UniProtKB/TrEMBL annotation:
GO molecular function per UniProt: ATP binding; ATP hydrolysis activity; transmembrane transporter activity
Protein name as it appears in the record: Spermidine/putrescine ABC transporter ATP-binding protein
Gene Ontology biological process terms in this record: quaternary ammonium group transport
Full-sequence portion shown in this chain: 1 to 225 of 328
Transmembrane annotation, as ranges: none
Domain of life: Bacteria
GO CC list: ATP-binding cassette (ABC) transporter complex
Residue span, ABC transporter domain: 4-225
Keyword tags: ATP-binding, Cell membrane, Membrane, Nucleotide-binding, Transport
Amino acid sequence: MSYLLLQDLDKRYGATPVFSQIECRIAQGEFITLLGPSGCGKSTLLRCIAGLAEVDRGRIMLDGENITHLPPQQRHIGMVFQHYALFPNMTVAQNVAFGLRMQQTPEHETTRRVGEMLELVELQSYADRYPRQLSGGQCQRVALARSLVTRPRLLLLDEPLSALDARIRRHLREQIRRIQHELQLTTIFVTHDQEEALALSDRILLMDKGSIVQNADAETLYTAP
Ligand code: ADP
Ligand code: ADP
């Protein structure tokens, strides 16, 4: 059972605190939205969980393992950013295969899993295209497939829809929710868009100025006075 525990996390840049005393437990298969205004520390918190930045204090436990100081590639965490950082000179299939190649996965296994992932994000017929030949929404689906192909224990989504127009955004968020449900993936979705948070998640962590100020199910938050 994969679950995430954040225990008393602090992070500063120089003398400036970014967040402090972050406490949270996320259960296997849960879809959590981290909602808060721009600059409140959401991205930095995700980056610390992924191992792209270091916390100054506290512990990050994943499946009972202390991952606080593990290098990113040993955490088995998938991440998608706002600006899909796809490799421009690799095809869609090569982009998706990248993580498996790094692990020296046998070729037949790679082909099978890349095929599975392309099917999951409904891009089977785009395997040989290059990112510049795709729309923004399609690029984000490739980024999602690329982050899932190595079967991460946890999926972190940092405003993955923010750069897209409204219609695509709605379609893609439904697709993300379907995939998350199908794979029973423990997921943290970061957004500053309240409507998106309410539409997507079972539970919302409300963050403000570096603290989690509310931890509630979507319905409670919505009906709160
Ligand atoms: P959010 O994702 O909620 O918009 P961020 O985590 O990006 O917030 O940023 C939180 C605060 O930390 C901001 O004030 C930002 O300027 C600051 N910050 C983020 N990254 C760095 C960094 N590498 N160096 C210094 N300050 C940073
Ligand atoms: P190479 O990088 O060796 O030239 P390709 O560009 O053909 O190989 O493909 C990159 C990776 O993606 C390979 O591991 C391949 O098995 C896989 N792949 C390519 N096309 C497809 C596809 N249509 N369905 C599934 N996997 C694919």
